[in-house]
Amino acid sequence: MKEFEFHRQLKLVRRRLQRFRELDGMRWGFLSGLAAALLCLAAGRLWPLEGPWMYAAASIGVFTAAGWLYGRLRRVPLAEAARTMDRAEPGEERQDLLATALAFAGDDSPAARLQRGQAEAYGAVYIGELKQRLPRPRRRYWRLAAASGLLAVLLLVVLPNPMDETVRKNRQARDWVRTQQTETERKLEQLKAETLDPQAKTALSDELAELRQALRQSRNPNQALDLLEEKMRKLEEMADKLELEQRRREDWLEAWKSRADTGKLGKALEMKSPDEAGKAVDELRQKAPSLTAEQRESLAEALRQLAETAPDEDADAQRLGEALRKAAAALESGEAAGADRALEELAEAMERDIRASETKSGQAASASELAAALAEQGLDLAEDMAASGLAVSGAWGQGGRAEQLAAGSAASGSPPGAPSGSGASPGNAPGENAPGGRGTGEGNGPGDGSGAGTGQGQGSGAGSGTGGRGQGAGAGQGQGSGAGLGSGGRTLVTTPRSIQGGGRVETDGGPTTGGSVQKGGKSPVLDGVSRPYEEVYSDYAAEAKRSLERKDLPQRMQGLVERYFTEIDPGS
């Protein structure tokens, strides 16, 4: 269809009408956005919503844009533009010139051409007065509604929100959980970088990976603390199980060493030396042909008894026991070739057992250290939660399991009696103890540096470290009045002359707290000298103060040490 001048005039009018439609859409969208913003802000005062003003601002913007888009998509047709132009002015008669010209645009008759000419002449006048003929619509109600809505929104934003404190606590809780996630991921990366046996590293990495995944799904600090406690307990159990296997293995090796014919084999296993184990087996192989029938039978019986007493829970020990049975059967048969093969298999089994024992020792130590690290990590969270008025379980409270683990991993040089995993305190050789301690047995010398004092008496006794695994104990003779928090007096304290004594030396494994034996420097007292308790106390207190200055202990550890010396202060 041929385009005429009135088509151009209609398009100009249609463009203006389209802008008016878009403007109306924005107005309605803005009012709808204000209503949505008020709902968001009101909800933020009823429920702990974080950042309701952001949702309110987004609602206004989104609804306004949606209204404009709606007006944009509703296109104005040319017929509506024609009807708008043909609208009669007040006092005039409607002529429908543009509507008629548009309807007969395809007609080329003289009447149609004449009518188009009249329409174009009218359209030219209309376009010349377009702003006066088609002014922008004014919506007074819209301005009033918009002003009222904006005022209400501003008031809700400015006035204090009773939910702000709850929102702050929720945000803080999420930050705590994210911190635990970050710390766990950091520990996992550190574990991957350590030079551990792959089997031991995998077992520990799996535990940390499970903890990391659980923390990622957690949003509650109490739940995060429970996850840390559960994983800490599992790592402790892992370390305890491995250490129990090691102790049973050591007991088993004592039976090896108690016999002359297997003593070197047992010592090689105890030393965890594959070379020594190979040498011991070679020596046995060379000696086997020269043995009498009775000697071979005795040796075979000894090997068979060792195999029967292998720890049931230790799979590596059971495999070694099977190799012992084969060697015993081969020796009894008297066949040299079979005995050589069986003894060679025994050497291989011993080497495998040594490697497995080393792996378990490293895994046990790493599990203990990792459990202590998780305890320290959880204690920080527990302190933050307690400071915010949140309840925490007893494991994270003062003197709880987590604090004991963290104390066991503290720097060496803890003062006497401090709750740490070390069996000996700074300034004390193993078996010598601080005043106010608890001696085991009947002796009344100072004890292990923690707990209650002993009563009076005379006899042999043994002081032993507590809190760690595999800690040494010294035994000796002591005489004097007991010093400590028990029933003994505090007049004099007698220190042992030597850590060696006439009694039987025992090893106290201590409770499984994940500690380690720590050896200090020179004791602040002289061996075998009876001194007033006040002087001994001052010496130890001064040594503890110097130790605290040298070591960067956590604040709560320092508090425990200070409380300990306050309790045993002779002036209190």
As residue ranges, the low-confidence spans are 411-529
Number of helices: 18
Give the topology string: H per helix, E per strand.
HHHHHHHHHHHHHHHHEEEEEHH
Name the structural class.
Answer: mainly alpha
Descriptive overview:
A hairpin with an 8-residue loop joins strand 2 and strand 3 (473-480). This protein has a three-stranded antiparallel β-sheet with strand order 1-2-3, with no helix packed on it. The chain has a two-stranded antiparallel sheet with strand order 4-5. It is mostly helical. The protein is built from 18 helices and five strands. The chain has helices at 5-46, 52-73, 78-85, 97-103, 110-128, 130-133, 140-158, 164-193, 198-216, 221-257, 263-271, 274-287, 293-308, 315-333, 336-387, 401-408, 533-550, 555-567, and strands at residues 440-441, 457-464, 473-480, 492-494, 530-532. Helix 1 (5-46) crosses helix 3 (78-85).
Features:
572 residues; two-stranded antiparallel ribbon; mainly alpha
List the helices and strands and how they pair.
Blueprint: H1 5-46, H2 52-73, H3 78-85, H4 97-103, H5 110-128, H6 130-133, H7 140-158, H8 164-193, H9 198-216, H10 221-257, H11 263-271, H12 274-287, H13 293-308, H14 315-333, H15 336-387, H16 401-408, E1 440-441, E2 457-464, E3 473-480, E4 492-494, E5 530-532, H17 533-550, H18 555-567
Antiparallel strand pairs: 1-2, 2-3, 4-5
Helix pairs in contact: 1-2, 1-3, 1-5, 1-7, 3-4, 4-5, 8-9, 8-15, 9-10, 9-15, 10-11, 10-15, 11-12, 12-15, 13-14, 14-15, 15-16
Task: Write a compact overview of the structure shown.
The protein has helices at residues 5-46, 52-73, 78-85, 97-103, 110-128, 130-133, 140-158, 164-193, 198-216, 221-257, 263-271, 274-287, 293-308, 315-333, 336-387, 401-408, 533-550, 555-567; strands at 440-441, 457-464, 473-480, 492-494, 530-532. With 572 residues, the protein is mainly alpha-helical.
